[in-house]
Automatic annotation (TrEMBL):
Domain ABM: from-to ranges: 1-85
Phylogenetic placement of the source organism: Bacteria, Bacillati, Actinomycetota, Actinomycetes, Frankiales
The protein's name: ABM domain-containing protein
InterPro entries the UniProt entry points to: ABM_dom, Dimeric_a/b-barrel
Residues annotated as transmembrane: none
Length: 101
């Protein structure tokens, strides 16, 4: 999502303020907001769902329409891609540390 230049802080605050419209949905596993290091007005949003059918149901809900209305004035452009996690490899920093003793 590209945000109108100069409105990045407003976008980030709005995204946090209205995020529960997504994360409170029973099929939502979580969301992440990522700002591009190369293009400060560009953001990536990752949203994880139990399954695609429930995500698609959410997309057409009143809850999602209200969420979009709040973000739309801040957006210059956007696109969406969906996918499925095939494999997850945990990194060394995410592994539990053995107890001393």
């Amino acid at each position: 999502m590209r945000i109108h230049p100069g409105r990045e802080a407003e976008f980030e605050q709005t995204w946090l303020r209205i995020g529960d419209a997504v994360t409170s949905h029973p099929a939502n596993l979580g969301q992440w907001l990522i700002r591009s290091e190369d293009e400060p007005s560009t953001y990536f949003i990752t949203s994880d769902w139990v399954d695609e059918a429930q995500f698609r149901e959410f997309e057409t809900s009143e809850r999602h329409l209200e969420h979009r209305k709040a973000l739309h004035p801040l957006r210059a452009s956007g696109s969406m891609a969906t996918g499925s996690v095939l494999t997850h490899l945990a990194g060394a920093a995410s592994l539990p540390v053995p107890a001393a003793g």
